[in-house]
Predict the 3D structure of the following.
Amino acid sequence: MLTIVGSLAFALTVAAVAHLVGADDLRGLVLMFAVLAAIALSHSISVRMMRRPVVTTTAKLGALSLRYRPVIAMPTFLTCLAFSPPMIVIGYQHSLPQAILGGVVCAILAMLVPLVAVLQAKRAFLHMSPDSIRVTTIFNDSECAWDDILRIRITDHRPGIDSIRIKCRNYGVTVHRQIRGFTVIRPGQEWEFSAVAWGASLNSLISTLIFLHENPEIRKTLDKTQIEAMLEDPPWATGRAASNRPLLE
């Protein structure tokens, strides 16, 4: 975060100097860099603010549920809000319909992103019940029994992205509801989701899921306090697990 703040401060300083000396081209370029730095800073702040997982027992009867944390909503909103006006203005000034269309799309997204984030925060959960694990969002609702899970591991195909992949038996995933184009879980395929979307670190969430998978008796007596303690990062924890090898075969 300090690097981003430093970049933002440097960009704003150069932009101010460029304005004083009348270097309009340099000022515009540096201001654009400052906007990008501000967006990156908002993403970093958003991730830090929503890092703590929120566990509830009311979202699904008999389950301990992690509430969705909309960590990318703010930077996405700021990106669309920052680029929409200049794209529309430049499009009209230079008769570029593509730029106008892009600006309009950004403006529409800037209005939709907060709405989707609010709906997700109210309806999106990772449910862990004694019998199954279930993910519900405003777009999808899928479930897999613990007994049908074959492997839980960290993904290794998208470096830098904290995501967990669960492999189930063929047709072990039950799709209760899905919207075409937003489907993330399909029968017969591995089930993948982000750890940060649920406010947890990769290490803590995957360790918790593996522990629950391997201890069916404990799943029956687990309470909210215990899950919160399991998801709490230890003082020595790092951002990512030390290895991308499969953690459960």
